[in-house]
Design brief:
Number of helices: 12
Strand order of the largest sheet: 1-2-3-4
Structural class: alpha/beta
Largest sheet: 4 strands, parallel
CATH topology: Rossmann fold
Keywords: Hydrolase, Membrane, Transmembrane, Transmembrane helix
Number of domains: 1
Pfam family, one: Lipase_GDSL
InterPro entries: GDSL, GDSL_lipolytic_enzyme, Lipase_GDSL_AS, SGNH_hydro_sf, SGNH_plant_lipase-like
Family: Belongs to the 'GDSL' lipolytic enzyme family.
CATH class: Alpha Beta
Radius of gyration: 22 Å
Number of strands: 6
Order of helices and strands: HHEHHHHEHHEHHEHEEH
Oligomer: single chain
Strand content: 5-15%
Organism: Medicago truncatula
CATH architecture: 3-Layer(aba) Sandwich
Distance between the termini: 45 Å
Shape: globular
Amino acid sequence: MFPSYSFSLLPYLFSSSIFTTFLLRLTIFLVVFFKTNAVLKLPPNTNIPAVFVFGDSIMDTGNNNNMTTPSRCNYPPYGKDFKGGIPTGRFSNGKVPSDFVVEELGIKEYLPAYLDPNLQPSELATGVNFASGGAGYDPLTAKLEVAISMSGQLDLFKDYIVRLKGLFGEDRANFILANSLFLVVLGSNDISNTYYLSHLRQAQYDFPTYSDLLVNSALNFYQEMYQLGARRIGVFNAPPMGCVPFQRTMAGGIIRTCVQEYNDAAVFFNNKLSIGIDTFKQNFPSSRIVYMDVYSPLLDIIVNNQKYGYEVGDRGCCGTGTLEVTYLCNHLQPTCPNDLDYVFWDSFHPTESVYRKLVAPILQKYMHQFQ
């Protein structure tokens, strides 16, 4: 039996903020309860209610869309293989790693950008994306690219926490933060653009000293995340940016080989970052921070592309594939007949197909370390 209400009370119930809040929380419950089926088998007694991402264009799902920045891609042909063929601001022909992570964990199909004007409150309980194309650990990197800096991404996270607590209360919000997966993907723009391409930091630092600046900035960032409630923090290392088509064109010589100096710099930085993360674990023993290697599996796909079913590993699908990225990859540029044959979508970013191949094995390899 439903309780009986007088007709005079019904208008109050359906117009009150109490009823509105009830509906919102019911919607959020249903979204969380009827999650997508997880592909990845989690370790026993491991619950990951949400995923949060900080980083650059590899992970950005549209935070740069309404910014005046060259690091923007909410126009064709970007997104041509996304649901509905919509250019969402993802730097790819389709999904990006942020999306595949939440899909693999069975949380939801896509990880929305926090600055998406259509973001629904029901999404907040299962995670959002703060990443911004062009960002880096070096504050100068975001300035050069007119991106959301790491401090800016933290400010967005603080705003998110306030909204989360307003919806769920402090205890539930703290539970979500403490048990969720936080991913950080940064470093490639610092090394390839701020240090080597612009030469601005080369005038101030040799690379070992610059890598110290990056690692110190990274560790400070993780500490701020930790102080805001994050515990499960996954840090992707820098990729082999010397093998992306743009760098091959700019510094790879006539035959456009991988630029070994850039790859060596990435490896040097990655080693220091790994050591720094080990120290972080000692200083914050209740943290579950994990260094995650994307450099090796991505390099293997690029160098041995045919083994993975790709025909082209040194050019992107968009335009000539040698220089086109962001605004140079536009509706006036032709695209390759079949992007499934290509490792790269544009001259910087892999195709959706490559991301799909990378994410599941990486999660499978490191997931047990977040227990």
